[in-house]
Amino acid sequence: MLERAGTGLSVESMIEAARRSANGESFQTVMRDEDFRAGIIATLQAGRPPLVSIELLLRIFESFSAVDAASLEKATRILRRLIEEGYMVAHEDDGWFCCRKLIKSEETMAECDSLHEILDGYHVSTGG
């Protein structure tokens, strides 16, 4: 079942958590379901301002399953749209895609809403 972030998302709190973490990063899930997880990442690098990004892990194909033309077309449309929206896309070995986009902290909720609309538009189960 989809879980979606409410107004409790605070980029400033995430940056503070990144400062306290061993790897200089913090992650907060904003949407999830069986075939995807989306979240906001705050990353700190020495001598640079904090980076904020939105990340989508998306399973388009089941591992070792037969793929039909309709599934390939849907995957192509989703990935093309994400690339058009500025996401960097990488394929993982296990059938998942990692899609990441740098964003401004003040655009966080708007980007989450935009991603939700993209996933809904391609009938990826987002619950709403």
Structure description:
With 128 residues, the chain is α+β, with helices and mostly antiparallel strands. It has one domain: 2-Layer Sandwich (Phosphorylase Kinase, domain 1). It has 3 helices and 6 strands; from the N terminus they run E-H-E-E-E-H-E-E-H. A hairpin with a 2-residue loop joins strand 2 (25-33) and strand 3. The longest helix has 16 residues, at 69-84. The chain starts with a strand and ends in a 7-residue tail after the last helix.
Provide the succession of SSEs: EHEEEHEEH
Number of helices: 3
User: How does the helix and strand content classify structurally?
Assistant: alpha+beta
From the N-terminal CA to the C-terminal CA, the straight-line distance is 11 Å
CATH architecture: 2-Layer Sandwich
What is the strand arrangement across the widest sheet?
A: 1-2-3-4-6-5
Query: Which runs of at least 5 residues are low in confidence (pLDDT < 50)?
Result: 1-6
- Oligomeric organization of the protein chains: single chain
Rounded to an integer in angstroms, the radius of gyration calculated over CA atoms is: 15 Å
Total number of domains = 1
CATH topology grouping: Phosphorylase Kinase, domain 1
- What fraction of the residues are assigned to beta strands by DSSP? 25-35%
Give the beta-strand count: 6
CATH class: Alpha Beta
| Largest sheet entry | 6 strands, antiparallel
Dominant shape: elongated
